[in-house]
Amino acid sequence: MVRNKKQDGSIIIFAISILALIVAIAIGITPIFVLRLRTSLEAANSTVAIQAADSGIEWCLYINKGGPNPPTKPILVNGATVDIYNASNNPATCDPAEGSASYRSIGTYKGISRSFEVSVPGGGGPFATGGTVTVSGLYTIHTFTSSGTFTVNGSGNVEYLVVGGGGGGGQLGGGGAGGMLTRSGFAVTPQAYSVIVGAGGSGGSSGSSGTAGENSVFSSITAMGGGGGAGNGNNPTNGGSGGGAGNANGGMSGTGVPGQGNRGGNITSWPNRCSAGGGGAGANGVNQGGADLECAGTNGGAGSISSISGSSVAYAGGGGSGGVSQSNTNRAGGSGGSGGGGNGRNSIDTVAGSVGITNTGGGGGASGYSGLGYGSGAYTGGSGIVIIRYLTP
């Protein structure tokens, strides 16, 4: 076969043209693929940078709101970094004391930076400060076991528990519990609210009555201190809950404040030289109906339960009264009411009573009496408490 040289030349030219076209197309689309690859990598790096910035802003808000057990600033194990700045564009600690109105968190990863900025209501800081701050479920809780200041940085509603100091036990009658007040939906505004936690009253000695507990106060709310228990021949006193009766005042106890507490126990078979328990927030002190000069003490009135602290706790129980025996027989003292009430001594002074429990507002236990004379001194009431909580912002 005779080859046509002209044909062969045409084929070579055609092949070269096709190859040139392919090369041209390749050169033309390479920048597109490179751009798409670069965009894909930048998107992945951008996601990591966003996550770093988010971690920083979440940490900053937690610190700024005064969260418990604050962690250290995030350190990311993937090599990303986070920097946080305040409203003045200075490195921020996010501490409420900075008073910054906003914060900006910048996350950086492999040269890509992304940021989040957040404004802080009220110019920075938590909704409120003061007392011991804890968080339980949805609530932030401020507990005052001593007097202080509840400082509010915004407007809103709070729930409170205010319990007065318990009354001291008398030489016969049990101390009355401090008054107990609780309410939700109490409106607060930006200001400093004084908080007073009332001390418990002193126990009586040598036949004297116990002294009343001190009032506890939050804002306009006042829980009265508990009444002192009756002494030998001395009257009990009124209070948040009244002190228990003795051999005076016609056997009548101290009265309680309506809505805060209850009366103490009365002597129901007057004349009768015995004793009765102090009143509690949930019930009257138990009445005394024993024989003249030969009676066991009666129990203090039960307190009331509140869950404002995140746990179910009883407060403001009345103190038990002392045992009485002219014949020197052992007559038991009464038990304190649930909610921190102290126990009364026995008549012959061999079984000790107890104080009202601290920060419950419980009434103090009473002393006893025998033919040998008064027992050892009666017991002090428990100090009060103020607890405030609100939904965590």
Folded structure, characterized:
The mean pLDDT is about 90. The termini are far apart. This protein folds into 2 domains: about 45-125, no CATH class; about 125-393, no CATH class. By secondary structure, the protein is of the alpha+beta class. The chain has 1 helix and 19 strands. The strands form 5 sheets. A 5-stranded antiparallel sheet has the order 4-7-10-11-12, with no helix packed on it. It has a 5-stranded antiparallel sheet with strand order 5-6-19-8-9, with no helix packed on it. Strands 13-16-17-18 form a 4-stranded mixed sheet, with no helix packed on it. The radius of gyration is 38 Å and the shape is rod-shaped. Helices cover about 15% and strands about 25% of the residues.
Gap from first CA to last CA: 96 Å
Helix-strand string: HEEEEEEEEEEEEEEEEEEE
- The radius of gyration computed from the alpha-carbon positions, rounded to a whole number of angstroms, is 38 Å
Give the overall pLDDT as a whole number. 88
How many β-strand stretches? 19
Q: How is this structure best summarized?
A:
With 393 residues, the protein is α+β, with helices and mostly antiparallel strands.
Question: What order do the helices and strands come in, and which of them pair?
Answer:
Elements: H1 5-64, E1 81-86, E2 102-109, E3 112-119, E4 128-129, E5 132-136, E6 139-144, E7 148-152, E8 156-163, E9 180-188, E10 191-196, E11 216-218, E12 221-223, E13 294-295, E14 304-306, E15 313-315, E16 324-325, E17 369-370, E18 373-374, E19 385-391
Parallel strand pairs: 16-17
Antiparallel strand pairs: 1-2, 2-3, 4-7, 5-6, 6-19, 7-10, 8-9, 8-19, 10-11, 11-12, 13-16, 14-15, 17-18
